[in-house]
Write a structure and sequence with these properties.
about 180 residues, 3-stranded antiparallel sheet, alpha+beta
């Protein structure tokens, strides 16, 4: 029995097992790792949310473009002249009097706005989760071969408001050619 007592005393003094300081150090390292993973997951969730908002804005713009393309060519005109905006994150920033700068990177890319129709230049939209404004601009498009306006450019700008507001609008455009006249 004495040999057992001696054995137990030596086991307690040996290098087997962890000390309290080693255990705290290991837990601290583990905690730092867990917090790093949690922060990464949070940033990933935010990135996915922003991507979903951008996708929704593009979807809204494309849906409006398709709606406009389904209208008769003659009715592709704005109900009134859209107002300009001093805010560069607003598509109306590119309204210059009766013209619209259709290429935001080139100040010389302007075309006359087409009015006299029934298309509202600015409407609001919501899908229950997100909301914002939908802005439509119709300009003439000069065919470089013919040199005369034989088409119209449709420009749709979508802004998103609220928690996930985008820094700049989503803008989609297309050109619709005048159908040929049949005799």
């Amino acid at each position: 029995m004495a040999w057992f007592r001696d054995r137990v005393r030596h086991a307690g003094r040996g290098e087997e097992g962890f000390t309290l300081i080693e255990l705290l150090a290991a837990l601290s390292i583990l905690l730092v790792g867990i917090l790093g993973v949690a922060a990464t997951l949070q940033k990933t969730r935010e990135a996915v949310s922003i991507a979903e908002v951008r996708e929704t804005a593009v979807y809204r713009a494309e849906r409006e473009i398709e709606r406009l393309r389904s209208l008769p060519y003659a009715s592709l005109a704005l109900a009134g002249m859209p107002a300009s905006s001093p805010d560069q994150s607003d598509p109306a920033f590119y309204v210059q009097g009766t013209q619209y700068q259709w290429d935001s990177g080139n100040a010389a890319s302007v075309a006359p706005l087409v009015t006299g129709g029934a298309i509202a230049p600015r409407t609001t939209w919501t899908d229950g989760r997100l909301s914002g404004t939908l802005q439509v601009y119709v300009t003439t498009f000069v065919d470089t071969v013919a040199g005369t306006p034989q088409a119209k450019r449709l420009i749709v700008g979508v802004t998103v408001s609220g928690r996930y507001a985008l820094n700049r609008p989503t803008i989609v455009s297309t050109v619709v050619h005048q159908p040929p006249v049949t005799p």
